[in-house]
Amino acid sequence: MGVVLLTPVVVGVLCVVFFRLFIPAAWAIGLVDEADARKRHRGAVPLVGGLAIFSAMAVGVGGVLDLPQRYQWVGLSVGVVTLVGAVDDRRPLRALHRLVAHLGAGLLIAIAGEIQITSIGNLLGRGTIDLGLAAVPLTVIAMAGLANAFNMIDGIDGLAGVLALVAIGSLLILIPGRATEHDLALLGGLAGAVGVFLVFNLSSGAMRVFLGDAGSTFLGVSIAVALIHASQLGAMRPTTALWLIGVPLMDLALTVGRRVARRRSCLIGDRRHLHHVLLRRGLSDRTALRLVAALALVLAAVGILIEASATPDMWSFTAFLLVFATYVIVVERLRFAEVSRSRSRRRTPVDHWDGAPVDLLESPLHREEAHLGEQSV
To answer: How many domains does the chain fold into?
Structure first.
């Protein structure tokens, strides 16, 4: 139990140290997010959140815990994801190249790290569904998917970090007594690092930082590893994991579904994520953060209750699908209401912006939504 309590403290202190080291270095090498017309923040902000969190975890965990070799392979794979994200933060990479790196890291985790989704539970009420040869491919897709889910949702201060804390905190509630001390210590260390990041991220002074792609993808892969590991060891059921990452998962699924329906590449970004919709409804960044965090907490609480009550997997999965359907309806109605208001303000099919004829479907709202973000997809 000593290492479980010690690890978060050590990692948290190291995270502060690394932030103080990396922030001036970021200014020196230009690893900063410059403000522009598309972004809501003012001034340039260092993109070192992910690098500091990963470094604190690597040094702190390495100094406190004696981990098995397969855990070291997981750490190496997560490090690759973080490094690719840092390179992308400094000089944007093609989305396909990032995806290949995420898939490669997921494959290494599945094979060398021995973290695999071998069963998805009794979803159909006819017995446990074992994946067999599909275990590794599904694991790789899950790793890459959650990395990009957290990258997509990282659009306002604190959002990705808070959603990560919801998932980590829920796991820390569910798995004590069912997982090893190493597992609890790793989760505690990650929670400590993310907590320190949020203090820096939500500040308004010179020490303010962003996660960057390095941080959002690091968190996504790390949480995917934790959820898969816990669910396959029997610490919780696979369907419970859906509830703990409900918001980023539903946002990812709706985004991909929308792009496929519009026959657009899933790798081409837009501004139609949940936080974009809320911000365009007039909510402030902090209000949108609180609203999304509250939704995530409610979903996680439902998942914990379902796990504690031993609700059959089939009913848990069905309930989650109903929640997702409701989410789609609400988000799309909010988005279309904004589109309708934009059209109602312009009665004619063609108008002029800056002297050039523009169709209604190319209004500033639609151009903003279709604009490819530099930091995420």
So the answer is: 1
